[in-house]
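INTERNAL AUDIT FORM
Audit reference: QA-55
Scope: verify that the stored structure record matches its stored sequence.
Auditor: D.O.
Record contents follow.
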Amino acid sequence: VRALARCFDGGFARIQFTPDLMPSDVTGHAVYDLASEQFKLRKGPVFTHLLLADEINRAPAKTQAALLEVMQERQVTLEGRALPVPQPFMVLATQNPIEQEGTYPLPEAELDRFMLKLRIDYPAEAEEQTLVRQVT
């Protein structure tokens, strides 16, 4: 994914989605700066060109909603301000379809934002042996 971002001189970021991931971990949040005595915006990892959402189905609904806003609107709302994300903006996501415990269903609106879904099954034993021989 990083190599793909380099192809068009774009930025790359990765988010490991977990059940305790908060929307602000994705979009960013305001941080109080003692020196200036003001709040400053700390942009989240969605402010990139190519975002890898790893195990996207492990995030709760409120975090999914934050990512969906970025995917739909191409902007993030932080502290009442709409901040555009860099263009082009693309999301590549992985999910573990086998483990259902600790996962959340993806909203239909979010699924509609992905161009394709590629299912990669575990290789057959003969294919696995061939892979091992090629790598070692």
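Auditor finding: record pair retrieved intact. The chain has a mean pLDDT of 90.
Action required: none
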